Amino acid sequence: MLANTRSISMAILIVCVAAGAVIAGDDASGSISYSVDLSQTFTTYSMSERDQQWSISLARRLHYRGSTVHFVRTSLPLRMDDATIQGSVYQAVERPNYFYIVKGDAMLKIGARWAYNPGVGGFSIYAPRSRGFIVCFNLGGGVPFLSSSPVQRGQVQWKGHDWNRLSKSVTVSEKGSE
Length: 178
What we know:
four-stranded antiparallel sheet; six-stranded antiparallel sheet; alpha+beta
């Protein structure tokens, strides 16, 4: 009887562990539909020497010594449910296959399986009041939007939340970049 109980307990434990492995994982998906067409022709903000100096000064003031990635505003429109939003899609200068979506706090990396929320590993962004560019520290991975289509040069869709990392943080203002 005791051996039979141990066998049943072991079987239940194996089934629970296997079921957890199949459905385990984080998902940043939400109820708001987002989409952007990365195959469209678009323009980008051109960073000036003054903007570069603002970025260097920011890193110095924050005692940041890691790599810095700059995202510049694009003319690509973002679809958010039934609305079209301009000025929310940014492209990385140093890594042109990366696009950051301010409205919804999403990162799109061309070739990735999913769009993802970059809010892990110390990821932080700063922008001057003009919002023409964003300075990004600690660009790494994130939590995927499992509802996302593959990220490609074409239409990318995902379901997320109405998050805006820049609206919650203080916009850094300094002489040199407004």
